Amino acid sequence: MRKNSYDLVPYPTQSHPAAHVRRLEAVATLFGMQPRPLADCRVLELGCAAGLNLIPQSLELSQSDFVGVELSQRQVDQGQSIIATLGLDNIELRQGDLLDIDTSWGQFDYILAHGVYSWVPENVREKLLSICKKVLSPTGVAMVSYNVLPGWHCCGALREMMTYHVSKSAAPKEQISQARDIVRFMTEHFPADTAYGQVMRQELEFISNADDNYLYHEHLEDNNHPVYFHDFIEGAEADGLQFLADTDVASMFSMHLPAEARNALGALPLVKQQQYMDFLTNRKFRSTLLCHQGVPVTRNIGPEVLRKFQLSLSTRPEPFQPSFDSKKPLTFRLGRGQIATDSPLGMAVMEHLSKQWPRSITLDELHAASIQRLANLGKRDESFDHLSIDDTAQTMIEIFVSGFVNYSVHPPPVANLVSNRPLATPLARLQAAAGMSVTNQRHENLNLDEFSRFLVTLLDSQHDHKQLLKKIQAAVATGELTVPQDGQKHRRVDQAHLNSLLSNTLVGLCNISLLKA
């Protein structure tokens, strides 16, 4: 690793939903483990940067202990300043080298290593897996993310083009500028009518829109070592660890593949199955969960397993109107994906989950609400008494394997209604005031517009809606805040517009689970 490169160019620091201990606890429970409950656990993050993945977790889980280690003193100082401002006493960020971590650090129930493994020398990669073995508690879970082949072959080619073009003696800012130059050149001149050009253009488009700091550390650092999944697992097994799952469990299923491919893969051992799926999908990144060898792991996801969780949709569907009288399938669009059903129960389940979003509910609550919805229709000459909770569970499993379900043993505290005195977390208010991306209660990063950012700074439960409106009016009057209206920014807007904007923004913030219940 280039000396002090992360001090010279701090890595973009933010939360990562896959690197929240809630995800690790849920996946471990799904596969039959009994991980340490979140209310009383010990967490270690390797390569924590400024701690903005770890700090939101420590704020929420105040009875648990969090330790982050980071090589860059500059980023540690930044994180420690945030911790001091928030008055947190259950988190510690340490400046240090992963090579210095040993058993004197104690045991940890959860270990997080997002964006480290592929970006360090071989001896540090080996040490990282050794840490996961030596300081992980007997029922602990470790998360390690890394670039994988074959998908990273194309990215690696572009990285080599950039490193060839960039002057190694130039300052980081100039290196980034030079890298942007070659990216623009290639974007303009790659042949559009060839398969090679089309593939490269997709990668170039992503790089062109990437943050400068991300581009520097992902493509210009000395170390970036993608690996095949099976090689990573072999290394983990050599250290006494076993593959538990991917943090994105839905990505482990072969449902999107043709039936012939599913049948062929189904006969293979799990690791080989996953490797061949990487071959087929050209996967380039993984976030893998590991546990100790010998820990029993079960792979059957049935109705009884889902009753251990609280459930929600991963994304709120676009507006829809179920027609329970029609046999025509109804398609629900969620983000970039979609799922279709012609089942009245499936429609009732999706409708109720959408109304509850982003709140989580139990399978029993979902079943009762869905059956009641069908019973109240009064439009079909059909009884739904035969539908059991297993039927609702099977419907949820179908949604689950499509990747549209969040499942938690201990769900995040979120609201789906706006209270009279709204409350955002202290961290969200601090981030909004500092112009940073904001971490919501689901551990997602939100880039807010000027109006939303100003509003979030006021959400301390001390202001009701009338008081919030007065604060906004005063800021508009002094020019501190400009409000969009008809696509333009104006200092003077009428009260009706401000009131409508306030209400709509509060609802929007609530729906993205920024507000606590």
How does this model look, in words?
This protein is α/β, with parallel strands linked by helices and 517 residues long. Helices cover 43% and strands 16% of the residues. It has 20 helices and 17 strands. It has helices at residues 5-8, 21-30, 55-60, 73-86, 122-134, 152-165, 172-189, 195-208, 212-220, 229-238, 259-266, 270-281, 303-306, 344-356, 363-375, 389-401, 426-433, 450-457, 465-478, 495-511, and strands at residues 42-46, 65-70, 91-95, 108-113, 136-149, 227-228, 241-246, 285-292, 310-313, 330-334, 337-341, 361-362, 405-408, 438-439, 445-446, 483-485, 488-490. Strands 1, 2, 3, 4, 5, 6, 7 and 8 form an eight-stranded mixed beta sheet that branches. The chain has a three-stranded antiparallel beta sheet with strand order 12-9-13. The protein starts with a helix and ends in a 6-residue tail after the last helix.
Span between N and C termini? Answer: 44 Å
Radius of gyration, CA atoms, in whole angstroms: 25 Å
Mean pLDDT: 89
- Overall geometry comes to globular
What structural class should be given to the helix and strand makeup? alpha/beta
Largest sheet: 8 strands, mixed
Helix content: 40-55%
Regarding quaternary structure, what we see is: single chain
Tally of individual helices: 20
Task: List how many beta strands DSSP finds.
Answer: 17
Percent strand equals 15-25%
The stretches of 5 or more residues where confidence is low (pLDDT under 50) are none
